[in-house]
Write a structure and sequence with these properties.
Layout (H helix, E strand, L loop, with lengths): L3 H11 L9 H12 L4 H11 L3 H10 L11 E6 L2 H5 L2 H12 L12 E6 L11 E3 L2 E3 L4 H8 L4
Parallel strand pairs: 1-2
Antiparallel strand pairs: 1-3, 3-4
The structure holds FE2/S2 (inorganic) cluster.
The site of FE2/S2 (inorganic) cluster has 12 residues, from α5.
């Protein structure tokens, strides 16, 4: 549900841009940061607030990988499986996460503790493999390090 506070913030952001269309991403971030994901309802809400066709808002929301379209767990594991990370063992780490937490890529654990997202390069090729947990960056990963890190997220 989009609160009055979010609506107020989005209305304020409209004034930051010369055209309302430019505020789409900012509005989507605001909702996702609060709600954890972007529902169909929230896309229509942004469309209405910015006076932009719903298809345009949906086009932006579905173009970028950072926007989520299903409810997520409390902690989002984003693991890179692009070339450098793959060579350095990222697929083994994905298998570990599947085994330990019973989640597939794009899935969420039954207790909503973790969601797993497979990412493209996150800019840490030199210290691969790498992952984000929420906004926290972790690199030079191996199985033990991944489990030690994830034990810190409840
Ligand atoms: S390939 Fe994984 S961080 Fe670049």
């Amino acid at each position: 549900m989009i609160t009055e506070e979010i609506i107020k913030k989005i209305q304020q952001k409209k004034g930051d841009y010369p055209v309302f269309r430019s505020a789409i991403m900012s509005a989507l971030h605001e909702i996702q940061n609060t709600e954890g994901w972007l529902s169909q309802e929230s896309l229509y809400k942004v469309s209405g607030m910015l006076n932009i066709p719903p298809a345009t808002v949906k086009g932006v929301a579905t173009f970028y990988h950072m926007y989520r379209h299903v409810p997520m767990g409390r902690n989002i594991i984003q693991i890179c499986t692009n070339v450098a990370c793959m060579i350095m063992g990222a697929e083994k780490l994905v298998d570990l996460l599947k085994r330990e937490f019973g989640i597939e890529a794009g899935g969420t654990t039954g207790d909503k503790r973790f969601s797993l997202v497979i990412m493209e390069c996150i800019g840490a090729c030199g210290t691969a493999p790498a992952m984000l947990v929420n906004d926290d960056f972790h690199d030079n990963l191996d199985e033990k390090r991944v489990m030690d890190i994830l034990n810190g997220y409840k």
